[in-house]
């Protein structure tokens, strides 16, 4: 159990065939989380692998999850507002220092052009808005075999290129991990043991314009 909780923010639940009758059981296996957000998991459809009503006591599960419960990124019930992000056209953060240091008067041919302060400020604001890569958050239903069931997942804005000229795109550069409980069954048919185990789930926290 300790090795699972100390694992890197990796998560892949694989459905494995077992025996000549192709009986199925779930096995937890880590896989590198270089590609975020985490794709949807393919679950065993048999309801025998679902937690029962007595396994879903909120008081018991809150105690088991402890301080890992983060209401900012997880919810027990379906949130009223599924899309939690503001429109990405107006960055709320100030212009980064590397853009402020940009010398707009210098040309590739060694000539210098005059650029007024007002024009420079407006151009830098436009450039920052065009190349800014916000993280867009939406609530995702992980299914009945996760607790809490709903996670606020981050995605990089991808409706257009973030570079000028076009060619680059917004990609994740940082992520945070949140600990959830996973209903884990080992065995098959009625000879199985099921329990809640902690698993780490990576969430995109920062995106940047890159190749």
TrEMBL record:
InterPro entries: Cystine-knot_cytokine (IPR029034), Noggin (IPR008717). Transmembrane segments: none annotated. It comes from the Eukaryota. Disulfide bonds join 133-170, 156-207, 162-209, 185-194. Keywords: Chondrogenesis, Developmental protein, Differentiation, Disulfide bond, Secreted, Signal. It holds the Pfam family Noggin. Residues 1-22 form the signal peptide. The keyword Plastid does not apply. SUPFAM superfamilies: Cystine-knot cytokines. GO terms for cellular component: extracellular space. One of its GO terms (biological process) is cartilage development. It is found in: Secreted. Homodimer. Belongs to the noggin family. This is Noggin. It comes from Phoxinus phoxinus (Eurasian minnow). The lineage of its organism: Eukaryota, Metazoa, Chordata, Craniata, Vertebrata.
């Amino acid at each position: 159990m300790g090795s699972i909780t100390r694992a890197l923010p990796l998560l892949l639940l694989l459905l494995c065939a077992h025996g000549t009758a192709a009986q199925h059981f779930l096995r937890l296996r880590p896989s590198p989380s270089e590609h975020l957000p985490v794709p949807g998991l393919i679950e065993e459809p048999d309801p025998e692998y679902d937690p029962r009503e007595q396994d879903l006591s909120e008081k018991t599960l809150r105690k088991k999850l402890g301080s890992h419960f983060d209401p900012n990124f997880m919810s027990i019930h379906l949130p009223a507002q599924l899309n939690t992000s503001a429109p990405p056209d107006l960055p709320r953060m100030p212009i980064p220092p590397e853009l402020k240091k940009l010398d707009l008067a210098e040309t590739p041919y060694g000539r210098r052009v005059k650029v007024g302060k007002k024009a420079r400020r407006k151009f830098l604001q436009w450039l920052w808005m065009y190349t800014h890569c916000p993280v867009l958050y939406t609530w995702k239903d992980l299914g009945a075999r996760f607790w809490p069931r709903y996670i606020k997942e981050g995605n990089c804005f991808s409706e257009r290129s973030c570079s000028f000229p076009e060619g680059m795109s917004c990609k994740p550069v940082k992520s945070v991990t949140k600990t959830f409980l996973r209903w884990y069954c080992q065995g098959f048919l009625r000879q199985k043991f099921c329990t809640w185990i902690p698993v780490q789930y990576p969430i995109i926290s920062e995106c940047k314009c890159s190749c």
